[in-house]
Write a structure and sequence with these properties.
The protein is of the alpha+beta class and about 300 residues long. About 20% of the residues lie in helices and about 35% in strands. The protein contains seven helices and 19 strands. Strands 1, 2, 3, 4, 5, 6, 7, 8, 11, 12, 14 and 17 form a twelve-stranded mixed sheet that branches. A five-stranded mixed sheet has the order 9-19-18-15-16, with no helix packed on it. A two-stranded antiparallel sheet has the order 10-13. Helix 3 runs antiparallel to helix 4. About 45% of the residues are buried.
């Protein structure tokens, strides 16, 4: 079920992407209003910067003066409407070691374990570049595992949608795909373990921040293989070690995001060290209040 009061990007029968609003189980086509701010997600984030309360209230006004084009669930039915990843021209950045479980797992995998122990309690958080929009996939699209890696896992992450003014205006689900053996061999290999085609999944929609508590969400990750569930884990966003605003503030130091940015906030679900993803698996990540992001897995050739 898709959450109430959410933005989404969608396409109808192969047409250009459109910005939609989900309200009370109905889908409204914001792009059809013809206003520049509703042309796509980036223009809306730019228009909302510095006036987020007004921008969120304006969306409620759209509902009063427009007609829905379909039930919200039509986006999941596999018909003419198709959900797209909630990103157009933004970058995706990610924060690491924000859960105790993540700290322990990365210390086990690494040839230099003490660096992860130190960063957990350090003043400055770990923040790294994750993806450009073309490397991101949406609901139902395949995430990738590298052919030159032997230990690959999904990472379920609360993902912040942030304006150019560094204001958190919404939340979505992220899958920060990771090659643990590459990262563990040498911390300097982190970009190769994290940044590649299909290394990031986002969706299904952006739950707007109004009246929503992002630190009160149950989280689960399940992996299916050959019709059987081979892994399932749970966590809760209250276990995030750092304030969300602090993560965004550090990202914004000496840095700018003219069309907004998406920020992954770390994972609290780590499969056992003996587990690795395989081509043909399906990853299901569910956040209470945000929905479920499901993606099949394919192996990407080196060349």
């Amino acid at each position: 079920m898709l959450p109430h009061l959410s933005l989404c990007r969608f396409r109808r029968d192969g047409s250009a992407p459109r910005l939609g609003l989900l309200h009370q189980g109905q889908l409204y086509d914001l792009t059809a209003l013809g206003e520049p701010a509703y042309a796509d997600l980036g223009p809306w984030l730019v228009a909302a910067a510095g006036r987020t309360d007004e921008a969120l209230a304006a969306l409620e006004g759209v509902v009063a003066g427009a007609q829905p084009i379909a039930p919200a669930e039509a986006l999941l039915a596999g018909g003419e409407l198709r959900l797209l990843p909630p990103i157009d021209r933004q970058e995706v950045w990610a924060c690491g070691v924000t859960y105790e479980m993540s700290r322990a797992a990365r210390m086990r995998e690494s040839e230099e374990p003490t660096i992860y122990g130190r960063v957990y309690d350090a003043q400055r958080p770990e923040i790294f570049f994750k993806a450009t929009a073309p490397r991101v996939v949406g609901p139902g699209e395949a995430v990738g595992i590298r052919a030159d890696s032997d230990w690959d896992v999904p990472e379920a992450e609360l993902t912040l949608v942030v304006t150019p003014a560094l204001e958190i205006v919404g939340y979505t689900i992220g899958n920060d795909m990771s090659s643990r053996d590459i990262e563990g061999e040498n911390p300097l290999y982190l970009p190769q373990a994290k940044v590649y085609d299909r290394s990031c999944a986002l969706g299904p929609v952006v739950r707007l921040a109004s009246g929503f508590d992002p630190l009160n969400l149950a989280v689960s990750c399940a992996i299916e293989r050959g019709g059987e569930r081979v892994f399932e884990g749970q966590t809760h966003t209250r276990q995030i070690h750092r304030p969300l605003e602090e993560l965004v503030s550090y990202l914004g130091r000496c840095n700018s995001f003219p069309e907004g940015v998406l920020v992954m906030t770390g994972t609290g679900i780590v499969p056992p060290d003996t587990f690795t993803l395989q081509e043909g698996d399906t990853v299901h990540i569910t956040f209470e209040g945000l929905g479920t992001l499901s993606n099949p897995v394919i192996e990407l050739p080196v060349n």
